[in-house]
């Protein structure tokens, strides 16, 4: 298979591809992002972690706030995880924040605050994979390394007409082969930034701008009019139906600290009850009867229930999950002592604005406060 790959790549005009990307980047690419025009590896590392599976415009305000609070590796390494998670709240993929914190501690306390330069040492750090390590080496040290994020994959698949119906691991291996062999000998930083910008501006997943694409002359997907046929099919999004319990007493709200593993790890969230998908559509007395016993059983740990109100359901979409959430506001006749029980916490409402809570929880809470 390797020999076949070599024949395919030799037939393709590698120089035209890289020169086109470099030329396009110089004229149309992004040049004034907050993490550009610097060799500060801390800035570059932070931006690359934040940009994993997240759009540039979303990252910018988080990046700026993060740097204001943690301007260097020392301040981040010495911070409490809770403070890191607070600043990350809303950006998603929270394991990135945990790994960022672990990585900062490792570099500061075990590496004297100095980032490693070699690829193997970088890739062995928490949260840094092959593509991120390559990007760090390119932008911090000008090294000739290949990246392979979602944008680059999409460009290569379309331009080279790669069949993605086979095993995902095999496709990934093949894409890395192409990414490495298409690297130019010069202007590696411009080329690398160009690939990322080109994929997010021109060769987007839905409705790519083929008519103004300078690569259409060599793009197999464009020539065969199969722009989306070659792309890796996304996994089906699973529905997850839950009821969230909102209990407010005086100036406190009841939160539950989530486990480090799984969705929204280490964040504060409303206590929840998992619903079967077929029940989520029944916002009537049948649903109230179904959950009435569970609500009373749960609330008995914290007080005596007066009544409860089922609020309009909301939807929250992640990459692989779609949450159908029914918020249930519970009113207490009497509240027991506001002491911490297991992972349940009575949290001051005045601190919520800057607290590590998931986006749907923040949305529900803000809606309740407006009433």
UniProtKB/TrEMBL annotation:
It holds the Pfam family HhH-GPD. InterPro entries: A/G_AdeGlyc_MutY (IPR005760), DNA_glycosylase (IPR011257), Endonuclease-III-like_CS2 (IPR004036), Endonuclease3_FeS-loop_motif (IPR003651), Endouclease-III_FeS-bd_BS (IPR004035), HhH-GPD_domain (IPR003265), HhH_base_excis_C (IPR023170), MIG/MutY (IPR044298). Binds 1 [4Fe-4S] cluster. It catalyses: Hydrolyzes free adenine bases from 7,8-dihydro-8-oxoguanine:adenine mismatched double-stranded DNA, leaving an apurinic site. One of its GO terms (biological process) is base-excision repair. Its cofactor is [4Fe-4S] cluster. GO terms for molecular function: 4 iron, 4 sulfur cluster binding; 8-oxo-7,8-dihydroguanine DNA N-glycosylase activity; adenine/guanine mispair binding; metal ion binding; oxidized purine DNA binding; purine-specific mismatch base pair DNA N-glycosylase activity. Its EC number is 3.2.2.31. Keywords: 4Fe-4S, DNA damage, DNA repair, Glycosidase, Hydrolase, Iron, Iron-sulfur, Metal-binding. PROSITE patterns: ENDONUCLEASE_III_1, ENDONUCLEASE_III_2. It is an enzyme of class 3 (hydrolase). Residues 50-201 form the HhH-GPD domain. Adenine glycosylase active on G-A mispairs. MutY also corrects error-prone DNA synthesis past GO lesions which are due to the oxidatively damaged form of guanine: 7,8-dihydro-8-oxoguanine (8-oxo-dGTP). Belongs to the Nth/MutY family. This is Adenine DNA glycosylase.
């Amino acid at each position: 298979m390797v020999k076949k790959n070599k024949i395919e790549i030799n037939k393709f005009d590698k120089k035209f591809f890289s020169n086109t990307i470099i030329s396009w980047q110089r004229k149309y690419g992004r040049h004034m992002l907050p993490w550009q025009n610097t060799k500060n590896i801390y800035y570059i590392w932070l931006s690359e972690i934040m940009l994993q599976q997240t759009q540039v415009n979303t990252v910018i305000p988080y990046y700026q706030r993060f740097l204001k609070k943690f301007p260097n590796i020392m301040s981040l390494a010495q911070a409490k995880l809770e403070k890191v998670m607070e600043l990350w709240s809303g950006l998603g993929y929270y394991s990135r924040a945990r790994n960022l914190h672990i990585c900062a501690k490792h570099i500061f306390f075990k590496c004297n605050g100095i980032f490693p330069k070699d690829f193997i040492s970088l890739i062995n750090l928490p949260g840094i994979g092959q593509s991120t390590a390559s990007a760090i080496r390119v932008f911090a040290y000008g090294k000739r390394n290949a990246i392979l994020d979602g944008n680059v994959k999409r460009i290569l698949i379309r331009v080279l007409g790669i069949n993605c119906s086979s095993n995902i691991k095999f496709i990934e291996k093949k894409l890395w082969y192409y990414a490495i062999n298409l690297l130019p000998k010069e202007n590696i930083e411009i080329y690398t930034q160009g690939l990322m910008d080109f994929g997010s501006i021109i060769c987007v997943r839905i409705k790519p701008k083929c008519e103004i694409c300078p690569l259409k002359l060599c793009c197999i997907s464009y020539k065969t009019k199969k722009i989306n046929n070659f792309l890796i099919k996304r996994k089906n999004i699973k529905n997850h139906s839950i009821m969230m319990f909102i209990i407010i007493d005086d100036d406190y709200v009841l939160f539950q600290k989530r486990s480090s593993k799984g969705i929204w790890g280490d964040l504060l969230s409303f206590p929840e009850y998992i619903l079967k998908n077929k029940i989520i559509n029944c916002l009537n007395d049948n649903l109230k009867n179904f959950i009435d016993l569970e609500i009373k059983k749960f609330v008995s740990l914290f007080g005596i229930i007066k009544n409860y109100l089922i609020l309009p359901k909301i939807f929250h979409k992640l990459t692989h999950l779609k949450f159908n959430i029914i918020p249930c506001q519970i009113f207490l006749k009497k509240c027991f002592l506001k002491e911490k029980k297991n992972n349940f916490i009575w949290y001051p409402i005045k601190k919520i604005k800057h607290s590590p809570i998931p986006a749907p929880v923040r949305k529900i809470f803000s809606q309740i406060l407006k009433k």
